[in-house]
Design goal:
The structure is a homodimer. By secondary structure, chain A is mainly alpha-helical. Chain A contains six helices and three strands; from the N terminus they run H-H-H-E-H-H-E-E-H. Chain A is elongated, with a radius of gyration of 21 Å. Chains A and B meet through helix 1, helix 2, helix 3, strand 1 and helix 4 of A and helix 1, helix 2, helix 3, strand 1 and helix 4 of B. The first copy, chain A, binds a DNA duplex through helix 5.
Chain lengths: 118, 118
DNA sequence: TTTACATATGAGCACTTGTTCATATGTTTG
DNA sequence: CAAACATATGAACAAGTGCTCATATGTAAA
């Protein structure tokens, strides 16, 4: 007996649809990576950082100031954003400047805003 | 002294940029809602459910079968997806059928896939 | 080199989250 | 009505996450 011993007898399952879903499903790694990507967008501090970077390239210190958060907290989040390739960084003297890595960030955020503003 | 007592003296802040960021920032509620929305996409079980629903409208039982997960786990996740208005449901006899709520889901997922496949 | 500043990072803790298990609700059939 | 089935939901627990604090690294000025 499988997981569904007490649910969903054979006659009620739409077997052909389930098979189609299983056939079309992206591979396990892609699914995992996709969820990991959205997880990065799923924190209000990181969202605020990304929106701040819509305006301009900013140094860590600027971002801390704009968000009213400690440099450490912001720096930790910036690393996560950088690991996911959502932002890129550039050192200029003592400062490190961050900016958006590509257009996907903007598109994804715009679609998200569209959705919540309905 | 504020939060930044030991960091980022006045001369190093790009005050005009910070002010611009503060002025253009969406209100607190929108930022929070946006992060909440992406948080929903940020779980591989929910991503798998959404991708399954790309193919067809499915009942809870079909989804459990396709994902190889218990009915309870799937049902909990479906409620989260429904609360965020990413899926909608329709009862037909004993079954409840779920489908994608609107096109934003597809667009957001497609952009996400684009990003990770680069 | 020493000092000061900007940023990065590791450890620890409080809080959140996904699953399981047990059970409740809703629907159809006998 | 009772029994069977599909789905929903509350509680509890393990695993993950974001912040703080302390400290390390990197860079420029004295």
């Amino acid at each position: 007996m499988g997981i569904h011993a007490e649910c969903c007898d054979e006659q009620c399952i739409h077997k052909n649809l389930v098979d189609k879903v299983l056939a079309e499903q992206p591979d396990e790694d892609a699914l995992y990576d996709l969820a990991e990507l959205f997880k990065v967008f799923g924190d209000s501090t990181r969202v605020r950082i990304l929106i701040a970077l819509f305006e301009a390239e900013l140094c860590v210190c600027d971002i801390s100031e704009a968000l009213g958060m400690t440099q450490s907290a912001v720096s930790h989040q910036l690393q996560i954003l950088r690991t996911s390739k959502l932002v890129k960084s550039r050192r200029e003297g003592k400062q490190v400047y961050y900016s958006l890595a590509d257009d996907h960030v903007v598109t994804i955020m715009a679609q998200g805003l569209d959705h919540i503003l309905e």
